[in-house]
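Changelog note: in this version the structure field was regenerated for every chain. One regenerated record is shown below for reference.
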Amino acid sequence: MTDTMTPEQRHRCMAQIHSKGTKPEVKVRKWLWGHGYRYRLNVKSVPGKPDIVMRPYRTAIFVNGCFWHGHNVQLEAAQVDSLKLIVDSSCCKIPTTNREFWVTKIHRNQERDQENYRVLQENGWHVIIIWECQLKPAVIEHTMREVELLLNENMLARYKRHTPIPLHTETEPLPLAAEEEAPFGHK
């Protein structure tokens, strides 16, 4: 498929694509806010400047566009040099026009993403990656429930008791959730 736009038109079109407030990111933010989760956006002090930062959960959420981050496209250094070995995925089609530029750009994005994820994890952050294709109407609820499960697991892991719970001895009675008798001697 040939490009029907002039270079000036293509440049103007690509210049309109921004990294903040994208439609997939807004979908995730609305779902999280509607379900009671609070967050900060694009926090510069957190490595990699994640799209959504949830400090109480010590979690960074990246909402990645399938094209810009090469979803399901494995770009090894050797493959970048040989463009014919690269196979598109179902949600990431690398343009045939100026293919070398796009393969190099996507490969750099993937390398930077991996470095950001590694630094965050080394600093004790949990990283959640949500792909644009996971936010289609048919699967968004399932995706966001998975995110919710991960957030709850992160919170439980963070506040997990570090000291062992003492074992109960038979000499003292176990506390009951519902007493058989009325409390304080009332009958």
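Spot check on this record: The two ends are 85 Å apart (CA to CA). Residues 14-72+113-156 form a domain with the Endonuclease; Chain A fold (CATH 3.40.960.10).
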